Amino acid sequence: MVHTSYALLPLFSLVAGIVANPVYLPPPLHIPLTRRANNRNASVERFASHAEHLRAKYGWSNSTLAKRQGKTVGVDIIDQAQDSSYIGTVSIGTPPQSFKVVLDTGSSDLWVAVADCLSCGQTPTFDPAQSSTLQAVTSNTGNTQQVTIRYGSGSVQGTLAQDTVSMAGFTVNPQTLLLVDRMTSGLLDGDVSGIMGLAFEALASTNAVPFWQALATDGQFSSPEISFWLARHLDDENPPDEQSGGVMTLGGTNSTLFTGDVEFVPLTTVGGSPTFWMLEMTGATVQGKTVSIPTGDAALSAIDTGTTLVGGPSDAVKAIYDAIPGSNPVPSMSGFFQYPCSTDVQVSFAFGGKSWPISSADMNLGRISSDQCVGGIFDLTLGSDVSGGGGNPTWVVGDTFLKNVYSVFRANPAAVGFAQLSDAAGGSSGACFSVCGRMA
């Protein structure tokens, strides 16, 4: 049978055991991230297509407007296309076949292209015939189950299967995943083979428990957390195709990458079960002054490592750029704004507590003319009336913001936390200076 579902993409409770004696938990392991970079001279207008994909992903498209000891592991991240996406490596099958996948807290499915995939180009593919542990997932009638996942930037189709999946020493066996044999051309860049969704099971188009959630439930994590430091290379001159993109930590945090406390904000859920890593944005400042932004349902914000930019509701985005002298819409890029390149733009966001600044380097996507630069915050909803809510995020807070903080995604109790980056993680590039106080 064929199941068609629509994923919102380019994001448990844990069983707590009472033990008589303390259990030794080894320190967290930290996985470095790698980044693939494009030439800085590439046209900034490429971000317009990213924005349109994101609108479709979050329902704002133009058309619809036995338990183990827990541990913590650090994973090197690859930075792709000058901070456009952040990538990790996963192994599938027996013997293991390794692939690069986008690390996406904005979706929940794990999928990888297979050897007979159409429109996959030179993408490295998984060969099911070479895995002795692969099992097809069948329906009640004994037929293999096919699933289509539609993203803002295209779609994938394939068959459900179960196999051994490992990352940085963590293993889930069996893990349900989608073996993709049809993919929209251009959905993935370079030698990336799939996507690892890091949001909650309720969001999964495959109805599978996400890899990270299975690890947390199984007690393999020292702490039910995934943490990120995302490196910045947006303003590099002539960057290499791939370079270090930071660190994803599975099962805890890396205390060398942040200073002070992690400020946790409880997740906002719609309908009871968590889907996205969703918070309510409570305030914004521009050039040191508070700007008025919508509240309530119109402030629901998905915290999404798989998104390059920051998208928000029309009224809020307009208010932000109205506070930047000389800003105006970009005629050739729907929903984007430009401002004088000489302006040092300072924007900060709060999610219930501290106000976290975005580096002017991340706000500036590059020149669109000799003296005008494009801003990294765009109109996600394109004038739609979002006052009535409906549960979809109206803000999507991606890497333009997340590069400036140490971010922690905690399953139980469900929350997202932010902390100031340490000197080892770039320090002042994402530091909370005088504006990192309480919102007025």
Automatic annotation (TrEMBL):
<feature type="signal peptide">
    <location>
        <begin position="1"/>
        <end position="20"/>
    </location>
</feature>
<dbReference type="InterPro" id="IPR001969">
    <property type="entry name" value="Aspartic_peptidase_AS"/>
</dbReference>
<dbReference type="GO" id="GO:0006508">
    <property type="term" value="P:proteolysis"/>
</dbReference>
<keyword id="KW-0378">Hydrolase</keyword>
<keyword id="KW-0645">Protease</keyword>
<dbReference type="Pfam" id="PF00026">
    <property type="entry name" value="Asp"/>
</dbReference>
<feature type="active site">
    <location>
        <position position="304"/>
    </location>
</feature>
<feature type="active site">
    <location>
        <position position="104"/>
    </location>
</feature>
<protein>
    <submittedName>
        <fullName>Acid protease</fullName>
    </submittedName>
</protein>
<keyword id="KW-0732">Signal</keyword>
<keyword id="KW-0064">Aspartyl protease</keyword>
<dbReference type="InterPro" id="IPR033121">
    <property type="entry name" value="PEPTIDASE_A1"/>
</dbReference>
<dbReference type="InterPro" id="IPR021109">
    <property type="entry name" value="Peptidase_aspartic_dom_sf"/>
</dbReference>
<dbReference type="InterPro" id="IPR034164">
    <property type="entry name" value="Pepsin-like_dom"/>
</dbReference>
<comment type="similarity">
    <text>Belongs to the peptidase A1 family.</text>
</comment>
<feature type="domain" description="Peptidase A1">
    <location>
        <begin position="86"/>
        <end position="419"/>
    </location>
</feature>
<dbReference type="InterPro" id="IPR001461">
    <property type="entry name" value="Aspartic_peptidase_A1"/>
</dbReference>
<dbReference type="GO" id="GO:0004190">
    <property type="term" value="F:aspartic-type endopeptidase activity"/>
</dbReference>
